[in-house]
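Q: What structure does this chain adopt?
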Amino acid sequence: MLAIVWHIALGASVVALIAGWRPSNRVVAYLLVTPLVSVSAVAWAGGNPFNGAMFALLAALLVGIASRISSHPVHMARPLLFVPAAMLMAFGWTYPHFLERNPWTAYLYAAPMGLLPCPTLATVIGATVMLSLLDSTRWTVTLAIAGLVYGAIGVLELRVNLDYGLLAGAFVALGAISGSRAGRVYATFPGMYGCRRAPEQEESTP
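A:
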C-alpha cells in the first residue's frame, strides 16, 4: 500500500508539472527528500539498520543543502538530458524486482519505489536531472554519490543486475553537472570558444 501511495504522489506531481505547475527549486528539493525518509523508516521497521541509518543521513544532508537552493521556479532540462532522465524515472517507477509472484501489471503501481534504496534513488536522481539539477551542484553530486554506492552494492554484493541502471543514472547526473558548468563558462567567456560577435555588434564598435 505504501508503494501505491508513492506512485500516486509521483504521478500527480508529473501531471501537475505537465499542466504548468512550477514550484521553486527549493520546494521540489524538500519534496524529493520525503521518499528517502520513507526508505529509512521502512528499513528501520524491517530490521535493516544499515539502510535505515544511511538514508537518514542522506536525507539530513539533502535537507541542509535544500535550505540553500534557489527559490527560482524549476525548469525542464534540454532534450539531451530530459530523455535519459525520464527513462531513469520510469526505471524506478517500474523497478522489476521483488514482485515475482504478482502479475507484471503490478510493477506499474506497486514497484518498491519509496520503500527500497535503488528504485527510490533512481527516481529521485531522474527527477533531479529532468528539472535541470535544481540549479544545485551540491544536491546533484550528493545524490550521484549515493547512486554510485548503492548501485555498486546492488551489482557487486547483492548480484542484482538491474542496478546497473542506477549506476548509469548516477553517471548521467555527473555528466549533466559537467555540461552545466561548460555551458556557464561558454556564456561567460564566449571568446574562449572562438565565437565572433554578431554583425550589428561589430559595426557599432568604434
